[in-house]
UniProtKB/TrEMBL annotation:
SUPFAM superfamilies named among the record's database cross-references: alpha/beta-Hydrolases
UniProt signal peptide: 1-29
InterPro entries found in the cross-reference section: AB_hydrolase_fold (IPR029058), PET_hydrolase/cutinase-like (IPR041127)
Residue ranges of the TM segments: none
Protein name: PET hydrolase/cutinase-like domain-containing protein
Pfam family, one: PETase
Residue ranges constituting the PET hydrolase/cutinase-like domain according to the UniProt record: 60-252
Keyword tags: Signal
Length: 288
């Protein structure tokens, strides 16, 4: 990252802090464990679970209060913050994912680029899932894990996906200190049309460097660099749909990304730019 970009990124997010793969033709690598109810196609709607938040030294965990209430296991999302930020800046978005049935392990570090703390979140959940005395015991779906993050954490989401335990990545306005060549999972790149910190062209370059995996690019109309903080803004619904498809096998979410005339492909109100690479185009849409 250039000195100018790093300083701009750090100062913008620090100000906010202080102020407050699957193979191309396949849907998911394996059948998700258990079934988590779908709420239809309003992906921005709060999910059916009440949410608990546990703040630790290394991670903050957001998770359904009554995990496994119907015998289901919950997929995992590991999260990376932007430069100078902490999970609380994104708390409403991370709570939203937990309400949808995900367990979110958010690294507390404000310098997440190398994804070390993010990947360590998986280690913690593996330990808790095996501990008969833990409330997470037997309730974590460790076969379905996604990495996500914003800005520097967006680059970290790609870096975290070199871990073979990670099944998909969602880089939101990702910084440049990453190499998509090292990952082999489906990836959903998100840019902001009016982002003057991480320009859409920079995100598009990462997308174009991901031809070896199914990759989708979405440019959120009117969004600046800080539009995704808080409750996720217009980034909330599409990221939720992507995670529900790849980690929960939610077939209603499939049609938003795959098949001819996919839902987001034609949503010009939400996206000012949209593209799918050749491997993404090979993934079938929903069956009639």
């Amino acid at each position: 990252m250039s000195g100018r970009l790093g300083r701009a990124l750090g100062s913008a997010l620090l100000a906010v802090v202080l102020a407050a793969v699957a193979m191309p033709g396949a849907a998911v690598a394996e059948e998700p464990t258990g079934r988590i109810a779908s709420l239809g196609t309003d992906w921005g709607q709060t999910g059916p679970y009440e949410v608990n938040v546990d703040i630790g030294v290394v991670h903050t965990f957001y998770y359904p209060r009554d995990m496994g209430r119907s015998g289901e296991r919950h997929p995992v999302v590991i999260w990376g913050n932007g430069t100078g930020a902490v999970p609380g800046i994104y708390s409403s978005l991370l709570r939203h994912w937990a309400s949808q049935g995900f367990i979110v392990a958010a690294a507390n570090t404000p310098t997440s680029n190398f994804a070390i703390s993010m990947r360590a979140g998986i280690d913690v959940l593996e330990k808790w899932n095996a501990d008969s005395g833990s409330p997470f015991h037997g309730k974590v779906d460790l076969e379905h894990i996604g990495s996500a993050g914003h800005s520097q954490g967006g680059a970290a989401a790609i870096n975290a996906a070199i871990d073979p335990r990670v099944d998909t990545a969602v880089p939101i306005q990702p910084g440049p200190l990453t190499s998509p060549d090292l990952m082999d999972e489906p990836v959903f790149y998100l840019a902001g049309q009016r982002d003057l910190t991480v320009w859409p062209a920079l995100v598009k370059a990462l997308y174009r460097d991901s031809g070896h995996v199914p990759a989708v690019y979405g440019e959120v109309r009117g969004a600046g660099h800080l539009s995704s903080i808080g409750d996720g803004g217009d980034f909330r619904a599409p990221t939720t749909a992507w995670l529900r498809f790849w980690l929960m096998g939610d077939e209603q979410a499939r049609g938003m990304f795959f098949g001819p005339g996919c839902g987001y492909c034609v949503d010009d109100d939400l996206f000012s730019g949209w593209d799918r690479n050749s491997k993404a185009l090979q993934i079938p849409g929903p069956s009639a």
